[in-house]
Amino acid sequence: KSLDTSYVFNGSAKAWTNINGEASGPASRDSFNVGSITDVSAGQINYAISSAMVNDDYARTVAAGDSGNRRVADTGAAGTHTTTLAVIITEDMSGSLADVDDANGVLHGDLA
Predict the structure, then answer these.
(1) To pair with 43 at 20 to 30 A between CA atoms, which of 23, 52, 78, 97?
(2) What residues in the chain have per-residue pLDDT under 50?
(3) What are the two backbone dihedrals, phi and then psi, of residue 33, each rounded to the nearest 5 degrees?
(4) pLDDT of 23
(5) pLDDT confidence of residue 8
(6) Which candidate, 19, 83, 95, places its Cα nearest to that of 51?
């Protein structure tokens, strides 16, 4: 069985990160094509993309969790992302911005 390599290339994540987002300051546990992590405020983590995306219309997927507590994750408002910056927003179940133990972001799209 064979598969055209363009299917593999186009379907692969172009950047991803697994972040320990505790209040003491976020730190990357592991990542691909991510240069730095910034704690913007409670519930907002920005991560820098090392090799830029071709535009800011790439697909973003996020997930978040906390030991013993459910969390909601969002990719942030339209316009908050750039070709070299992505955002993870996390909230507690009441809708208040809150830091989390585990935040993850994945980007799909074309590299510049």
Answers:
(1) 52
(2) none
(3) 60, 30
(4) 64
(5) 67
(6) 83
